[in-house]
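#struct-pred

JT: dropping the chains for the assembly here, can someone run the whole complex?
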Amino acid sequence: METWRERILQFLFPAGSDTWLAILRLGLGLQVVLYALSLLNDWNYLFAATGSGLVSRNLGEAILSLESPFVPRLGWLIALGAHVGLGEETVLSAAWICLVAAGCGLLAGLFCRCSAILAWFLHLCAAKSGAFVSYGVDNFMTIGLFYLMLSPLPDRYSLDRRWRKFRPKDPQVLGFWRRVVQLHLCVIYFFSGLTKCLGSGWWDGINIWRALTRPPFNIIPPEILVSWKYFLPVLGISICLIEAGYPVFIWLKKTRLIWLICVLGMHIAIGLTMGMYLFALIMIILNAAAFGPGVSGMEGKGSALGRRRPASV
Amino acid sequence: MRQKSVYLACFILHFLLIITVSFRETLWLVARGLTIFPSSSKSYSARAEKATSAARGHNLAASSALRQALATYLHLAGIERGYGYFAPNVPESYKLVLELHYPDGRLEYQLPRVNRAAAGLRVAGLLDEIGRTRYDPLREYMVKMLAYSTWRENPDVTMIRAVFGSISLPSISEFEHGKRESYEFLYAYDFSRTDEATEVETP
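RK: done, full complex below.
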């Protein structure tokens, strides 16, 4: 029993460097900035309440309240702004500016913890208030920012470490948070792959055809897709295998690199062929942070901690 | 050592929740016969789904502190839903056409508009949400909101007919034989200045 406990602890608390955390911080900083910029002209329109928005923010927030009244939402900020005489549009614009600032803070590594908390909170408010207009990218951004906020920031590449002289963090705690991200990705891909395997359309390529011809993802003309029709079943089965096999093959030394390349390739292809650039980027960031350093050989350069024991099985 | 134990306990709780939520979604799909599993597996899956729902606190009263705490944590961590994107099969997509009626009898057709492609993806998600909802008043309310956002840009319009439909995509062989995507009527609503909607007809 004691040996099992020790083994589990060894697995969950490997001494690791903070390279993965730097990748996560930089990647999520970029993601937050691009997310905000992509909604620059539609921000107020998407998140306004009844009267000036696309679909009432109040409706989304009312439904959210049925689940729990304690989940952050833009309505809180707007109510707070109303107390000091600020209008809805002003508060929404201020929230957007703060989100960009938080993203820039993460990119620069300045006030890392505060930037991470602010980015998580504001993005969560937007994602929950605009639940009707949110999709997968918001879900994964929340996950990534949640872990970043709790991880032992700042990393050694941040300005915080250079200017504000923060002490290096406990390598085992760093390793633990990396494990959490790694294992969460394994659960994500396993269930994503499993549910795809349960659909007939992924085995004969029909779902690839439907995904690529379905508006608004129909970027590639169907005439081109038809010429690749014999390749579509192979593509569908490959996606099922890559995703369902991820929790196994990403851990084996011999297959880790090839699996990581396959997953990254899959997300790049989704981004380019379906126009889901932000979704592709967040998945690439999470994968690169979780499994990238051990594969690329970056980890440990310039750090005795990293040389001591790589944060992988 | 004590710090590690705390981390370990939190880790176990966190991952139990993630797996429960993901497993529940998979069981939900099986229970509704949306997968390749035989129909005999439906009842087992439905029972297992109920058990996982109970683990999420769904059997508790809506006002229960434990249920609300669980729901809050799931939302804060972004783990309130599973990961079956485009699974088990790619769902239908929907389209909303707004027929704008002007006082002089002129008609114009518009789609819900946004400024950038990134927001366009979100509007497509909203239409999917409207298409999926089985609660008529909610669907009507959301369509009304979309119609009114168009109204603000076209204040001269006296009436808007919102026609909501699904897009039928041809299969590969149908496409090769010349069939193209078609629009299948589902619901239509008339909105006038009096703010009262009339459902025109449903299939």
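JT: nice. The radius of gyration of chain A is 21 Å. Chain A has one domain: 13-153+171-308.
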